[in-house]
Amino acid sequence: MAKKKAKYVCQSCGYVSPGWIGKCPECNSWSSFVEEIQVDAATTAIGKRIAKAKPVSLKDVKGLETERTPTGMPELDQVLGGGLVKGSVLLVGGEPGIGKSTIMLQCAGILSRDRLKVLYVSGEESAAQLRLRSDRLGVSENEIDILSTNSLEDVLQACEEEKPDYIILDSIQTIASDDLNSAAGTVGQVKHVTYRLVELAKSRGITVMIVGQVTKDGYIAGPKVLEHLVDTVLYFEGDYSRGVRILRSVKNRFGPTNEVGLFEMTDKGLLELSSYSFVDDRADNSAGRVFVPVMEGTRAFLIEVQALVAPTFYQFPKRNCMGFDLNRLNMLLAVLEKKGGVNLAGSDIYINVAGGMKITETSADLAICAAIVSSFRDRPIDPHSTFIGEVGLTGVIRPVSNMGSRLSESYKMGIRKYYLPEKVEFDKTIEIGLSINVSKFLDMF
Ligand SMILES: Nc1ncnc2c1ncn2[C@@H]1O[C@H](COP(=O)(O)OP(=O)(O)OP(=O)(O)O)[C@@H](O)[C@H]1O
Ligand SMILES: [Mg+2]
Where is motif RadA KNRFG motif found (predicted)? Predict the structure, then answer.
């Protein structure tokens, strides 16, 4: 470890004191001293590296073969870009109870079946609690080493003795190092523990999987630097009402980002779903429901958007969105008013994306407009139709990317009528209604 010396520096004049003092003897300013940690550079890993490193020509550098181990869960492998990379550090974040420990234990079960040594470190649960879960998941008979501890030093010691291929750390917020005085879960500890684990992974070729809790704001508790330190960051999101869980890669040094994997939480653990439609009861023929395929990474999903347009009782009509951007809704309403002549000024408008999904792309603009007009005029839309296109401020409806995937997924889900801004070749028999601009599109209602 690097030697650290604390010193106190006056922020006004730069006077250095070995201890904190209230008034600067040099410039007489009050409460201007701030602690700065002095690290003896000669003894740090970074210090040594700076002294030894020499530039080399890129063409002389030999490439590394990234050794990937498939996890045996195709949905997880897809998110990882083919499997776990040896010596890499993976962070899995998610809200409490979403299923982080479940997927980690299932993964440990599969890896240990292939005679790979897995060390499961639990700072949250006792070995007995883990045993209960492993009985439920059917991995109790597997050779998984369980270590129930809150100390990083215990983990490092266990690594020396057991020489595991994989370490699972559940969770980073419950493990602390003796090097720092602060409690587990503080910014300093989270950073320090992660840094030590990254060092371990790179020097020994151990693959480390870290579980991270997510705060209410949706960020992994601890600093953003945690995400910078690791190679891959996966987030677990969920639709609690249906038990559907989505695993999303937000950072991946060895594969694509924004890929998603789909799972369903059952009493036997997480089941993989190859396809899923976030659509409620198809037979319900109410006005204001529209289906639209949206892309999540390289996959398309058919989701349902709902609009409710009702006369307002307020001085200013209410506009509310669940799963869609409110500013974008306001823009679409302005286009519908100005270019389509739809008078929505006296109506409250609510948008809901069914199944707790979030729409972050513009391809659903046309579907949102269709849902609004359908509810406003109280005319249901054929549940076997879809609307795809981006609406511009000029009222022009623009084509969007990945049309092939969107059409295929919609077709699989029973959609046969497509309202699109462009002519599209598709090898199945479908009906295409061209919607080039907003006023032409409104003619269909
Ligand atoms: N017997 C069961 N049958 C079905 N689902 C269950 C059962 N037991 C637990 N679950 C599901 O597993 C979830 C808990 O999973 P898990 O413990 O893996 O979550 P976690 O993300 O690790 O939570 P935490 O942040 O609290 O550690 C529960 O929310 C529930 O949905
Ligand atoms: Mg857990």
Answer: 251-255
